[in-house]
Fold these 2 entries.
Entry 1:
Amino acid sequence: MTRVKRGYIARKRRKKILAFVSGSRGAHSKLFRTANQRKARALVSAHRDRGKRKRDLRRLWITRINAAARANGVSYNRFIQYLYKRQLLPNRKTLAQIAVLDSNCFSTILKNLSCDEIG
């Protein structure tokens, strides 16, 4: 029986995986089996950390809003409670940017709240 030369598909797949892990150290960037394991681990970590980044940023925004609100004599909880009572759904990212970049504007927002609703 004559020899059959395999196509380029498997080589193409292996080269793609090795290119993905090209920044790794040692055998992880040279040997296919360890490179394949490294790629799988990297994708798992990336998926996990995308959710973690969202949580971390939300915590940061809440901390910034709380600091700005307390500087004006109101707690974060009361501030958000007021916004929900007025059916204003808070965008925490935007509120945090206002609190950091334009504290006068944030103070104006808090001053426009009625005193009996904030308590």
Entry 2:
Amino acid sequence: MLIYSIWFLFIYMFFIGNLIFVSKNKHLLIVLLSLEFIVLSIFFFFLVLLMFKDYDMHMLVVFLVFSVCEGSLGLSILVSMIRSHGNDYFQSFSML
């Protein structure tokens, strides 16, 4: 019974992150935080899955490296947008 509640928690985390991501947000920072929440839920899912299957955890390190690179890229885009436009509103710049 515990395993089903753990799987439900991961699925719930993933869908809440997607719901925040697709909702209409004014700030880019909220979108980036929801992406990191989705990545965190996927990481926990892989962690529990690999622990139950008794596999090596080397793939999780690779996943963490890519998620850190994704986070730093998002922050650099956020900083460059704030420097060029003065804020992180989606209405202040063109999406082209």
